[in-house]
User: What shape does this take?
Amino acid sequence: MSEPRAAAEAAVFSKSEMMIVAAARELVGQRVCFVGVGLPNIAVNLARLTVAPTLELVYESGAFGAKPGRLPLSIGDPTIVTGATAAVSMFELFSFYLQGGLVDVGFLGAAQVDRYGNLNSTVIGDYAHPKTRLPGSGGACEIAINARQVFVIMRQSKRSFVDRIDFRTSPGNLGGAETAARIRREQGWLGRGPSVVVTDLGVYHFDDSGEMRLDSIHPGATLEQVRATMGWEPKVADPLPVTPEPTAEELRLIREELDPEGAYTK
Amino acid sequence: MSKVTSMRDAVADVVHDGDVVAIEGFTHLICFAAGHEIIRQRKRDLTLARLTPDLIYDQMVAAGTARKLVFSWLGNPGVGGLHAIRRRVENADPAPLELEEYSHFGMVGRYTAGASNLPFFPLRSYFETDLPKANPLIRPIRSPFGEETVYAVPPLKPDVTVVHAQRADAEGNTQMWGLLGCQKEAAFAAERVIVVVEELCPEAVIRADPNRTVIPGLIVDAVVVEPFGAHPSYVQGAYDRDNHFYRDWDAISREAETTQAWLDEWVYGVSGRAEYVEKLGPERVASLRPSGEAPSGSVDYGVYK
Assistant: This one.
């Protein structure tokens, strides 16, 4: 493949592809990652093929060291078992692997997130009389507490990036970094909490106060778009870099190997 | 003594109105065949327990078998929501549905406590979340050995647990492989157990590989041989998850009328799983077979005399 052609192809990519690539790059140097379906699944598999070749994939359904041969629709797909290092019961997975402290990164998404990275995946509205009943915790609350750090991947909108979440399913930095650190220490949580939020518009990390800060903006996105799609005035790094574009090789891996049907990336 | 029976007799004898029923299996080995037979026999007022209610409980709730759900993740995995259950929860349509909600580890811990005859299971979940407010059965407890506080969940002892597996012998000694979920814990916690298998095997096959035995016949009340009984869920090595059906269900279940029409055609309209599989057709069945074989190596247990 000639260089100019590769560069030209690399110039065209979707917002989802940018999210996947940005999330994958954050996994550099990580060892054990708890994977969810959809975008996290592609991001983690991309990381395994690029920046984190020794990454072990753990699925809450009980597969450790999975090497999926196709893109699984569900986290319990048979492809995550065939060829895995171990297929264990959920008791072992949650007790020994997660609560035992072996998981470096847990990926979570949610319907709502606040500035401190607290997540709601349970209800919109009142719990007893919900406007929208969402799936609930699954393993999210224990991942938020016991994984060494949490990566959040979700698209921005006024409905999802909110000033106050309706229900706290998974704790982030609670009401601020100081309180969160004290409570985590006192209660013996193994996790340090959320460390990165990757959206369709940019990449956020958490500052000393425990609040999300926009640390890079994706190519083509604007600060106006960022502000228009969240329920609080975001902190923004100064200067604000542009997220490096996906490389031709990253795009090839996503399109040819990880999501050839474009189920999650179009 | 052989416990082999038909699905119709197993459900009629073992499942009663008002029971707490757990049809377990995490994505893998979900016994839709048993769920459909429970619907056909019009069991009522069941409390349905499962980590992930999945399509099976959406169908059973739509059919009016349940008054309550005990669960930890309420969705159509990889697709979206469970619409029949959401109609009951959000609009009490056609009737309210009681919910008792935990996290995955909380549910696994509940079965574990139930199976081990313990008064609770301790875990490091729920800190600083709203879940203990939503469910007062999730309670903080102080360690008897120090200052630490952890959370406790109560034991779950289903009246009936249904387990689907690759194979069992006639006594119910059951072997499975692939994702094990918490089928073992749910079975040991239950008062009565139905095992449903793809294949009945001789006792010698079980005894040749005792490490693979997940459930002993000792705790099993009925053995049902029902090939393809987990469809649209899957059985590792035998058939794939029917992801198309999981997607189709999203449209089917959006309206009460289309949901009932589906139940009429695919549940009430067939006599049992064999007829369901016939209706699916050989092409659909063939399309779900694995694309190749991946046999395990064998191990040598040795003879000691």
Chain B touches chain A through 54 residues (CB under 8 Å). The two ends of chain B are 28 Å apart (CA to CA). The first strand of chain B starts at residue 4 and ends at 5.
